[in-house]
Amino acid sequence: MANIYFNASPKKNNNLKPKDETISFLLNYSKALSVIHYNKLKFEALQN
After folding, report:
1. pLDDT given for residue 42 in this prediction
2. How crowded is the C-beta side of 44, counted as CA atoms within 13 Å?
3. How far is it, in rounded angstroms, from Cα 44 to Cα 29?
4. pLDDT at 21
5. Does the reported pTM lie above 0.85?
6. What is the pLDDT of residues 1-48, one digit of tens each?
7. In angstroms, rounded to a whole number, what is the distance separating the alpha carbons of residues 17 and 29?
8. What region does 39 belong to: left with phi over 0, alpha with psi -120 to 50, or beta?
9. How far apart are CA 32 and CA 35, in angstroms?
10. d(CA 11, CA 17)
11. pLDDT value at position 2?
12. What angle do CA 19, 23, 29 make, to 5 degrees?
């Protein structure tokens, strides 16, 4: 039974390099995101 579920782990690809556009998009999104906590509620607002 153990042989059915055992697989060698795939090799990790350490050469992952995101595009500059992707990094820029994520940074701009995180700058525009505002999280407001009110009592036990959480509001997320995108400030464009």
Report:
1. 95
2. 5
3. 12
4. 95
5. no
6. 566 666 666 677 777 888 999 999 999 988 998 999 999 999 999 886
7. 19
8. left
9. 10
10. 17
11. 61
12. 140
Residue with tokens 């701009």, as numbered in its chain: 28
Q: Which two tokens stand for residue 19?
A: 């595009």
What's the token pair of residue 45?
A: 């607002």
CA–CA gap between residue 10 and residue 16 (Å, rounded): 15
Q: How far apart are CA 31 and CA 25, in angstroms?
A: 10
3-class SS letters over 1-48? CHHHHCCCCCCCCCCCCCCHHHHHHHHHHHHHEEEEEECCEEEEEECC
